[in-house]
UniProtKB/TrEMBL annotation:
Catalysis: reaction(s): 2 GTP = 3',3'-c-di-GMP + 2 diphosphate
Upper lineage: Bacteria, Pseudomonadati, Pseudomonadota, Betaproteobacteria, Burkholderiales
Swiss-Prot/TrEMBL GO biological process terms: regulation of DNA-templated transcription
The protein, known as: diguanylate cyclase
Organism: Caballeronia choica
NCBIfam families: GGDEF (TIGR00254)
Length: 313
């Protein structure tokens, strides 16, 4: 009966659909099952009795040594997910090359093999989780894409008001904690209703898209550009003082009005009015107050004749 159990045990170890190998305290290979042989291209005879790194120098030496040593010292199981480390061995996988992974994705379990309460060796299992990882990545990418769509204005592709105000609230909190400078610009297109009335809403939509492209190419990478609604837009300017905010407002205004927009055989002139305000510790109590100050400056620009930039005073 013992002989039968031994034979059955060896069969199971050799036939299971995951890798099994055993390392001693010096990281010499003690056992190497069929899965490991088939995927590594090295037989048990080639690896048993030799340090694991002799045949696989590409393994993460420091990480694997620490992992195995911790099992010897603590006598407890350890685990590594593909999400923490995509793979231990660079095994080929049988999934489509469009899956976006170069090697088999692996979960690894480290199990102490004990005798009379002493850890004699560590058994490591390698599970092929390539399919599951690809499915998870696909779900994560889909969620990220949905989130991106939720944060973007459908017409212009820039940040929508909800996302813009979230970023503004975050930057305002950072400014309150750490100081520095923070400015905000609000602007809208002058007499935009006339464009819709004269040329139609499709032309108006094109004007908004082209304008958004011009502004996106003008602002800095750290700035946040968003649509507040209709023809009104906003620029969040982290680490930017009032003087620099006014300079940027003029730069953006000139980019918008420099060239008429050609659409459906018509040349549509476009100008914009800008309001600017800077967060100030003695006055600005909330990000909503900063919006109100910037909005007041924008309306002042309109009262002064439009197509200009005005700062809150």
């Amino acid at each position: 009966m013992n002989a039968l159990r031994h034979v059955l045990s060896e069969l199971v170890v050799e036939r299971v659909g995951f890798g099994i190998f055993v390392l001693d305290r010096e990281l010499n290979v003690v056992m190497w099952n069929r899965f490991m042989q088939d995927h590594s291209g090295r037989t048990a005879e080639q690896v048993i009795g030799k340090p694991i790194f002799a045949n696989f120098p590409e393994l993460p030496r420091v990480w694997l040594t620490r992992k195995v040593e911790s099992v010897f010292q603590l006598g407890s199981f350890a685990f590594s997910s593909w999400e923490q480390r995509p793979y231990l061995f660079r095994f080929d996988h049988d999934r489509p090359i469009t899956g976006g992974v170069d090697f088999m994705q692996q979960d690894c379990t480290f199990m102490p093999l004990t005798h009379e309460r002493e850890v004699m060796a560590v058994c490591i299992t390698i599970s092929d989780v390539t399919h599951a990882s690809m499915m998870q990545r696909g779900r994560d990418e889909a969620v990220a894409k949905l989130q991106e769509y939720a944060d973007r204005d459908g017409l212009t592709g820039i940040a929508n008001r909800r996302y813009f105000e979230l970023r503004l609230a975050d930057e305002f909190s950072r400014w309150q904690r750490h100081g520095g400078e923070l400015s905000l610009l609000l602007f809208d297109l002058d007499y935009f209703k006339r464009i819709n009335d004269e040329f139609g809403h499709l032309v108006g939509d094109t004007v908004l898209r082209v304008m958004a492209e011009r502004v996106s190419q003008t602002v800095r990478e750290q700035d946040v550009f968003g649509r507040f609604g209709g023809e009104e837009f906003a620029l969040l300017l982290p680490c930017t003082g009032f003087a620099d905010a006014m300079l940027l407002a003029e730069k953006v205004r000139e980019a918008i009005c420099a060239t008429p927009i050609d659409v459906q055989g018509a040349r549509v002139p476009v100008t914009a009015s800008f309001g600017a305000a800077q967060a100030r510790r003695d006055i600005t109590s909330s990000y909503e107050a900063l919006i109100n100050e910037t909005d007041a400056a924008l309306y002042s620009a309109k009262r002064q004749g439009r197509n200009r930039s005005v700062g809150f005073a």
